[in-house]
Specification:
The complex is a heterodimer of chains A (157) and B (371).
Chain A (H helix, E strand, L loop, with lengths): L33 H24 L3 H17 L2 H36 L9 H23 L2 H5 L3
Helix pairs in contact in A: 1-3, 1-4, 2-3
Chain B lengths: L2 H6 L8 H19 L4 E3 L10 H11 L12 H11 L6 E4 L2 H12 L5 E6 L4 H8 L3 E6 L6 H6 L5 E7 L11 H10 L5 E5 L24 E6 L12 E4 L3 H7 L7 H13 L1 H22 L4 E3 L6 E6 L4 H10 L2 E5 L8 E5 L3 H15 L4
Parallel strand pairs in B: 1-11, 3-4, 3-5, 5-6, 6-7
Antiparallel strand pairs in B: 2-8, 7-8, 9-10, 10-12, 11-12
Classes of the chains: A mainly alpha (157), B alpha/beta (371).
C-alpha cells in the first residue's frame, strides 16, 4: 500500500520522523554553575506560573475589564452597538496580545529550563493554555451552579 | 556575559541550519552540471538511441527460456519474414552474425591467394582488410565523383574475383542505382561476384529500397548484404542477412550453428513490430540531412549529396584532422577522413534537429568566427 510517510523507507535508509530532531546549541554553553542551575529551576517555575496567570486572565479579568470599558462607551455615546463592538474587538485584541506575550514568556521558560540542566525540547504554552481552560471551566461551573445559579435559590431559607 | 546573552546561548539552532552550507554547495554543483553540455558524438553511423524496450524484452524473455539448447540454426522464422518482405524465397536468405561477418565469409569463400577484390575508395575500411584476410589483394577505384559501373568494370582484371560496393557508400554517401548496377553485372565475367553492402540502404531516397536487391534473380553472382546495426540500432546483438541466388555461396557464408537465440528473438520482434519506427528514423535522417545541406551552403565547406545517415564534407582551408580537432573543442566528435580514405574530409553523422543546430553553429564558429 502506498504511504506518504517520509520516514517509511521500507527499511532501506535510516530516517527520522520530522520534528524529532535533537536540540542543537550553536556552541557549548558557558558559565553554567550548579548554583545558577538551582536558581534557574526556581525561575522556570515562576515563569510557568506567570504563563498560567496570563492564560487565566483570558477567561475572567480581561472579559470583565472589557465589559466595563464597553459599558462606559455605551454610557458616553448612547449606543449599545458601540459598547458591544468595543467589548468584542477589545476581547479579541487583548487575546492576541496576551498570547503573543505568553509565547515570549514560554520561550524564556524553555531557555531557563535548559539553563537549569533539563533537555527541554518544546515549550509548555499549549498545555498551560489547555489547563487554564480546564480551570476556567471548573470555576465557571462552580460559580454558575453554586454561587450565582440555581443553588442559592434551592438552598433552605 | 550579561543575563540575556547567558540565556540566549541555550537557544536551539534551526534544524535546517547545519544543512544550509551543504545545500548551497549542492546547488552550486547542480548549476555547474546544468551548464556543462555533454559532447555530441557524431562519429558513428549506428543509430544512437537505445532500442525499443519491447525488442530488448523479447531477447530477455528468450534468455529466460531454454538457452541450454541450440538455437534454430536456420533461423527459419526470420528468413521467412525477410523473404516475404523482399519478395524472394526463404532459401535465398541467410541470417548471419552481422553484415561484416557475412561479407568476410563471402570474401574467404570467393577469394584465394593472389586474387583481387575491387572496391571503390574511399569506402568502408573493412573491405581491404577482408581481402587481406583471404590472402587476396584489394584494388581501390577512385570514388570521388560518384559511382560509375563502367569505372568499376574497367578495373576488372584476370585476377579479379569479387567487387564489393558499399551502397550507399560509407563515408562518401554516394549511391549506385539499380540502372547503373545492372549493366555492370551484365558485363562482368562469370568468375566475378559482386558483394553489395546495403547496410545504410534505409537512408537513400534515390529509388525504391529493394531496387538493387531485385537484381539477384537476374544475376546469380550478386550477393546483397544488409544489417540490423544501423537503422534498427541493434549493433550490439550482431545480426545481418544476405540475399542471393547462388545456393553454394549462401551455404558457405551461413554461420555453422546459426545466430544465437537472443539475437534471433530480438530481430524477429523488430521485423514484426519495428517498421513504423524505422520509417520515423528514415524521415528524421532525410529531413535533417536536407536541412544540414541547406545550412552548409552558407559556409566555406564542400559537401556532396549524401544517401547515408551522414555527411562527408571538407573545409576549403583546413584538413580533416584539424577540422575534427576544432569540432572536438566545440564539443562535437566526428570521424576524421584519414582512416576512411581521404585526409581532407570528415564524416559527420546526421541525427536530430538539436544535433544539426549544434553542428551548424560549431562549423560557423570555426570557419567564420575563427574559433
Amino acid at each position: 500500500m502506498a504511504s506518504n510517510d517520509p520516514t517509511d523507507t521500507g527499511g532501506l535508509f535510516i530516517g527520522r520522523r520530522p520534528g524529532t530532531a535533537p536540540v542543537r546549541f550553536p556552541d557549548a554553553p558557558q558559565g553554567v554553575t550548579e548554583s545558577r542551575q538551582r536558581r534557574d529551576r526556581i525561575v522556570a517555575h515562576l515563569l510557568l506560573a506567570v504563563e498560567l496567570a496570563m492564560c487565566l486572565t483570558l477567561f475572567g479579568p480581561q472579559p470583565a475589564g472589557w465589559l466595563w470599558v464597553g459599558s462606559q462607551v455605551e454610557y458616553l455615546t448612547g449606543y449599545v452597538t458601540a459598547g458591544i463592538s468595543v467589548i468584542m474587538l477589545g476581547c479579541l485584541a487583548s487575546l492576541m496580545l496576551t498570547m503573543a506575550a505568553a509565547k515570549r514568556v514560554d520561550h524564556a521558560w524553555k531557555l531557563v529550563r535548559r539553563a537549569a540542566g533539563h533537555r527541554q525540547e518544546r515549550g509548555a504554552l499549549e498545555r498551560i493554555f489547555a489547563a487554564s481552560v480546564g480551570v476556567a471551566a471548573l470555576a465557571f461551573t462552580i460559580w454558575f451552579l453554586f454561587i450565582q445559579g440555581p443553588a442559592p435559590s434551592l438552598a433552605p431559607a | 556575559m550579561d543575563l540575556f546573552s547567558y540565556y540566549r546561548q541555550f537557544d536551539d539552532v534551526d534544524e535546517e541550519e547545519p544543512n544550509l552550507e551543504r545545500r548551497k554547495r549542492r546547488h552550486e554543483e547542480r548549476r555547474q552540471a546544468l551548464e556543462r553540455v555533454p559532447d555530441l558524438d557524431l562519429s558513428g553511423t549506428e543509430w544512437p538511441d537505445m532500442p525499443d524496450s519491447e525488442i530488448v524484452n523479447a531477447a530477455i524473455y528468450r534468455a529466460r527460456g531454454r538457452v541450454n539448447g541450440y538455437p534454430d540454426r536456420h533461423a527459419s522464422g526470420i528468413r521467412r519474414l525477410l523473404a516475404e518482405r523482399h519478395d524472394v524465397e526463404p532459401e535465398q536468405v541467410v541470417l548471419g552474425n552481422g553484415a561484416a561477418d557475412l561479407l568476410q565469409a563471402a570474401a574467404l569463400t570467393l577469394l584465394g591467394e593472389g586474387d583481387e577484390l575491387i572496391t571503390p575508395w574511399p569506402s568502408y575500411p573493412l573491405y581491404p582488410l577482408m581481402a587481406a584476410r583471404a590472402g587476396a589483394r584489394p584494388v581501390s577505384v577512385a570514388y570521388e565523383d560518384g559511382p560509375r559501373g563502367s569505372t568499376l568494370a574497367a578495373a576488372v582484371t584476370d585476377r579479379t574475383r569479387a567487387i564489393v560496393i558499399c551502397n550507399p557508400n560509407d563515408p562518401t554517401g554516394h549511391y549506385l542505382p539499380a540502372n547503373e548496377l545492372g549493366p555492370l553485372l551484365a558485363v562482368l565475367p562469370e568468375r566475378v561476384h559482386v558483394l553489395l553492402d546495403e547496410a545504410l540502404v534505409h537512408f537513400q531516397e534515390a529509388e525504391e529500397e529493394d531496387a538493387c536487391l531485385r537484381l539477384v534473380d537476374a544475376f546469380p553472382r550478386l550477393l546483397v548484404v544488409r544489417t540490423f546495426s544501423k537503422a534498427y540500432g541493434l549493433s550490439g546483438l550482431r545480426a545481418g542477412y544476405a540475399v542471393g541466388t547462388d545456393a553454394g555461396l549462401l551455404g558457405t557464408i551461413a554461420p555453422v550453428h546459426g545466430v544465437n537465440a537472443l539475437t534471433q528473438a530480438a530481430v524477429e520482434h523488430a521485423l514484426r513490430t519495428g517498421d513504423a519506427e524505422i520509417e520515423r528514423r528514415r524521415e528524421t535522417v532525410l529531413s535533417e540531412r536536407a536541412r544540414l545541406l541547406r545550412g552548409l551552403l552558407d559556409l566555406p565547406v564542400e559537401v556532396g549529396a549524401s544517401h547515408g545517415n551522414f555527411l562527408w564534407l571538407r573545409a576549403r582551408e583546413m584538413d580533416g584532422r584539424e577540422l575534427a580537432e576544432r569540432l572536438r573543442k566545440q564539443g562535437i566528435i566526428v570521424a576524421p577522413g584519414g582512416p576512411l580514405g581521404a585526409d581532407e574530409h570528415i564524416r559527420a553523422t546526421v541525427r536530430d534537429s538539436a544535433a544539426s543546430d549544434r553542428m551548424l553553429r560549431a562549423l560557423e564558429n570555426i570557419l567564420v568566427g575563427g574559433q
